[in-house]
Amino acid sequence: MKKMIFSIAIVLVSIGLTTTPAMARTGRGGAMSHRPSIVEARGPHHGPRVEKRMAVRPMAPVGGRHIAHPIGMRFNARPAGVVLSFGGVNFIYNNGIFYSAIDRGFEVIRPRVGMIVPSLPVGHSVMMRNGARYYVHNGVIYSPMHRGGTRVFRVAGFI
Fold first, then answer.
1. How many CB atoms lie within 10 A of CB 37?
2. End-to-end alpha-carbon separation of the chain, Å?
3. What pLDDT score was predicted for residue 69?
4. What's the CA angle centered on 14, arms 13 and 20, to 5 degrees?
5. CB–CB of 75/56 below 8 Å?
6. Which one of 70, 96, 116, 121 counts the least CB within 10 Å of its CB?
């Protein structure tokens, strides 16, 4: 009887050890995955998207760099930042993260080309193209410009 229980335990442990790394590699959950599982992002059995509303503010800098929230993440509380107006719609900008008012909350969005921001995000990098200097952060390309005697940055595109 002890041998049978021991054999079953060995089989269960080996199945668990072989499944977890595979799940982590595919991004479908698991202890080592940095992405949410499909069930968390899409709901049970890959059904309709489940909205997770959280009453949190943007994360504080870690090691001098802000952690970017994924596009589509929603918050109940108004995030800190400056209000930008673009195309007759107000957005909130905070260190490279753009928010739009949705229902009774705020959602992280991809910025629109042409938006003007007052400052570059922490942790940006410099890119030279055709002799012009651009700045890149989280896949967003910013170009410097002057407006009203101050230096501002325009969303020029995406990588």
1. 13
2. 61
3. 82
4. 90
5. yes
6. 70
